[in-house]
Amino acid sequence: MMTAHSAFIPTQCVFDRTLIETLEGSGPRYTSYPTADRFHAGFGVSDYEHCLAQRAIGANHRGISLYVHIPFCNTICYYCGCNKIITKDKSRADAYLDYLEKEIALVAEKLGCREKVIQLHFGGGTPTFLSDAQLDRVMGVINRYFELLPEGEFSIEIDPRKVGRDTVLHLGRLGFNRMSVGIQDFDPAVQQAVNRIQSEAETRLVIDAAREAGFKSVSVDLIYGLPLQSAHSLESTVNKVIAMSPDRIALYNYAHLPTVFKPQRRINEADLPSSATKLDILQNSVQQLSDAGYVFIGMDHFAKPGDELTRALEQGRLQRNFQGYSTHADCDMIGFGVSSIGKVGPCYSQNEKDIDAYYAALDAGHLPVMRGMTLTQDDILRRSVIQALMCRFSLSVEAIEQTFAINFADYFADELPKIREFQQMGLLHFDGDFLMVEPKGRFLIRNIAMAFDRHLRERETHARYSKTI
Predict the structure, then answer these.
(1) Would 371 be classed as within a structural domain?
(2) Which residues contact 320 (CB under 8 A, 6 or more apart)?
(3) Using CA atoms, how far apart are residues 469 and 464, in angstroms rounded to an integer?
(4) Domain containing 391 — which CATH number?
(5) pLDDT tens digits, 220-241
(6) Phi and psi dihedrals of 121, rounded to 5?
(7) pTM of the entire predicted model
(8) Within this chain, do residues 148 and 286 fall inside the same structural domain, yes or no?
(9) Burial class (CB in 10 A: 0-12, 13-18, 19+), 264
(10) CA within 20 to 30 Å of 232's CA: 44, 80, 278, 400, which one?
(11) Do residues 310 and 451 share a domain?
């Protein structure tokens, strides 16, 4: 059992292995609703431009969030499912930044004003593939067209194998104040099996440098279910990570989908741990993190009791977007770069996934939109329900009824039998007025959220989802 400290009642969580095994399955991570596999090519450039124009003429003065995708990596990690380009040629990044600048300028023109930015995230790929000069350049472009707010969260993903202390200090001077550090596993055999050789020393170096640079938060990523992992081997990694004392820890379940992600074909499937071993790993890791004082935030995320995510969960203001959990109120997000996803008003959009198609669109003078969708009122309602469950482990029927002018029991008549079933299993309590996810249901929050996913129930998809646990 994992219990939080003092007043953090919402973060109590019970690892009920029997229930988890009973409900084992696959499903969306709900960084959005509807999920990205529902986007379609019928949504194009003109639709996205209309959304940007509506924001420009509307009364939406809330800060905006920006995501910048840097697709380049020096080497390939076999487990990775990200959109990436493997190269050691940094001049390719110079060309990419030319196009990134074109896209940023086009979006800024459509917005019509210098928007205030409350969140900025650089993801990849490997954002620190860029040299210090290239990082200077892209941040200069962003600052030219947008205003980064002093209280904003500005984060970047780090590969410790390619970054030293000087670069981390430089990132701090550029305005970054949060860092996500990829680790996955420190075991040498596992690292060899996934082609990611990374020492504990070089990882500690960048974390220490982040603290020296004044970063407000350091998060680390671990993955369970990788080849050659065992409960004992990951226990050692988790202990080493705890000793580094990061503010946040993400413990992701490896999704082996070699038909979707070609690099995973290099992994020997015979070396993958069994489902039972994966549950052993997860159960042990959760206990380790609990004993070390980390608080369960939701799904696969843990944070220190004083971290902003923990406080946001306690105060009922935790949010979830394409980058995961967030502490800020829901805001529009604009994605820049190949394959990036954004949300503006009632619309989702995604850029071209192929870099040549991305370049061609910008050469033609228009935004590189590949697909997207405009949400219906039903989508917006269900998004609100799923967001409440994923971020607060609770749902107020009265709040939903007042906001959307519906009768909850009538509107969700098809969903309520599943909710009652979950209640009988002990996952949640629902009295008709308020739904509260019980401690043993919090590791299974994706299963509960899926009950309200109309697209999942009624419309086929070719997407391959990850395991819910």
Answers:
(1) no
(2) 30, 31, 326, 387, 390, 391
(3) 15
(4) 1.10.10.920
(5) 999 999 999 999 999 999 999 9
(6) -135, 130
(7) 0.92
(8) yes
(9) buried
(10) 80
(11) no
